[in-house]
Amino acid sequence: MPNWSKNWSNAPKSALAVGTLLFLSYLGTSLYRSLLVQYAQDGQDLGSLWRLLAGILIGVGLLWFLAWLNFQGPFRWWFLVKPKQNWYYLWLLLLAWLVFELLQIRTTHEIAFVDENWLVTLVFIGIMVVFSYVADAFRVRRERLLLEQQKTRAELTALQAQVNPHFLFNALNTIYNEADATQNDRVADLVQQLSGILRFTLQEAQKDFTSVAHEMAFIEKYLALQRARLPKHDTISIETHIEDDGQPARIAPLLLIPFIENAFQYGISMQQQSFVRLQLKVEMGILEFEIQNSVLPQTATKRGQGTGITNAKKRLELLYPNKHGLVIEENSDTFKIKLKLNLRE
């Protein structure tokens, strides 16, 4: 049985393609007939016209290429970064002056062509600006669609892993009650931390943004579980400092966890001297995060930047364009990540 709904959904695209082809064919045929009527008696004039049309096509292609370079370069470097927007306006003034001077040279500085050269210059700059705005609008829309797709995939992955969250919560509550009844405070505390992590992952992580306070509480629970699983040993050092000014701020959930997981996964060893040092501070809507871990000989050659860090970098680029600075450094004994993030909307 044919899939009529799928075929029907593709019908507008097919109709648009056919309509565009027919319209262009009609215009081309009309132009060809008109040229035959006007220039069929004079082959030299017809050749000049084709050279003119070829020159126009080359000019349009060159104009498109320059507009694309302007969008990829000055527009994205300066205009999209508010503190640097004045540099973009200065660039447009310099570009306008250069184009005008080139046109003046082309017309040998004839006074009669000044107004025409100014008009061409303004049209050129206008095309540059409009092209950049339109291209950026398409870029933003494409990135928004990509974020939505990534979010959908993440939600599907979470659903597949949940099995039955109510059962897990009930099981954790049962273990907590048993530990509390036997006055095993350590086990009760660990279960409580794990329950908080699970609740955050199933609830807050499904949102686009969560409060900084919730995210920090989640990180502290995660760190508490990491400390609990590691033995008390002189060769293992874990130092953390988390500070929040208490001002309302929002952040994408689970944004920092991949960096922290990477530090514990590759920086801690039971046999060698190892460490993890974490500093996290949020003040006046600015987040400063730094984490260091030891580089272990057996993992130095095979670690690299894993999928978690790669995905975190991509999320930062999509969610906080021009609002973050990320530096990753590595030497023979230390792997360091520094992130500065502007959370102000």
The largest pleated sheet is described as: 5 strands, mixed
Estimate the strand proportion: 5-15%
What is the average per-residue confidence, as pLDDT, rounded to a whole number?
77
The tally of beta strands, per DSSP, is 7
The poorly predicted ranges are: 1-9
Tally the helices. 10
Keywords:
Heat Shock Protein 90, 5-stranded mixed beta sheet, alpha+beta, 14% strand, two-stranded antiparallel sheet, elongated, single chain, 345 residues, 10 helices
Q: Care to give the gist of this entry?
A:
With 345 residues, this protein is of the alpha+beta class. The protein is built from ten helices and seven strands. Helix 2 (43-79) runs antiparallel to helix 3 (85-106), helix 3 runs antiparallel to helix 4 (114-162) and helix 8 packs antiparallel against helix 10.
Question: What would you note in describing this structure?
Answer:
The longest helix is centred in the middle third of the chain and has 49 residues, at 114-162. The two termini are 52 Å apart. Helix 2 runs antiparallel to helix 3, helix 2 (43-79) packs across helix 4 (114-162) and helix 6 packs across helix 7. Residues 1-9 have low confidence and may be disordered. 65% of the residues lie in helices and 14% in strands. Among the domains are: 48-162; 234-342, Heat Shock Protein 90 (2-Layer Sandwich), CATH 3.30.565. A hairpin with a 3-residue loop joins strand 6 (324-330) and strand 7 (334-342). It has 345 residues and is of the alpha+beta class. The protein has helices spanning 4-39, 43-79, 85-106, 114-162, 165-181, 185-202, 212-229, 257-267, 297-300, 307-319, and strands at residues 210-211, 236-244, 250-251, 274-283, 286-294, 324-330, 334-342. A 5-stranded mixed β-sheet has the order 2-4-5-7-6, with helices on one face. Strands 1-3 form a two-stranded antiparallel ribbon.
